[in-house]
Design brief:
By secondary structure, this protein is an alpha/beta fold. Helices cover 19% and strands 30% of the residues.
Length: 197
């Protein structure tokens, strides 16, 4: 089951229902260090899920998976290094391939956007949030993306505007949207608070 309980919100806000084995169907699995435990839990519930699984682990070693071992594993130090492998795997995916995503909202959103661009149907994508509550945000004004946003409002790392953290999520881009918080009242910025699930 997912580690984090998210407050109901607007319809575009992603929900993470947890990973459920689809048996020995071909699978691509992507997880960061926090999400690797979800893949291990999935394999413990049904070992056959690893029979035809290609696993991409970001920032952690294969030892986190324990047994059974997946068909193939790629370890990457960060998401930038993993992206070409993920893109290639999704581009070569056959019909019926399942996509399992586990970890941060940033990872889930980014890989979902790549899958969406590659034409993978939404019904084959499963996700489980584990780890910190940090968002991947796009400034709607300059289109720059800021990773790991944990406060509301926050300062865009590209244009410097103070942005309101919205729950609106762009599935195509794999990001939440941030909009200038003081556009109509320059300099009037609410107190900064931590983002809550």
């Amino acid at each position: 089951m997912p580690n984090t309980e998210f407050t109901p919100s607007i319809p575009s806000r992603p929900t993470y229902t947890g990973l459920v084995s689809q048996g020995a169907a071909p699978a691509i699995m992507v997880a960061d260090e926090a999400g690797a435990g979800a893949l291990a839990d999935l394999a413990a519930s049904d070992a056959s899920v690893m029979d035809h699984a290609y696993v991409v682990l970001i920032g952690c070693g294969v030892d986190v998976l324990r047994t059974p071992a997946p068909a193939a594993v790629h370890e990457a130090p960060d998401f930038d290094a993993a992206t070409p492998v993920i893109t290639q795997l999704l581009g070569e995916a056959r019909m019926g391939t399942q996509l399992y995503l586990a970890g941060s909202e940033g990872l889930i959103g980014h890989v979902s956007a790549i899958a969406f661009a590659q034409g993978l149907p939404l019904d084959v994508i499963q996700s489980e949030h584990r780890g910190p509550i940090a968002r991947r945000m796009q400034c709607v004004h300059c289109k720059g993306i800021t990773e790991d946003v944990t406060t509301d409002p926050f300062t865009c790392s590209h244009c410097g505007l103070t942005l309101f953290v919205r729950d609106h999520f762009s599935r195509r881009l794999g990001v939440f949207q941030g909009v200038c918080v003081d556009a109509e009242t320059p300099g009037v910025v609410p107190e900064t608070v931590e983002i809550r699930p």
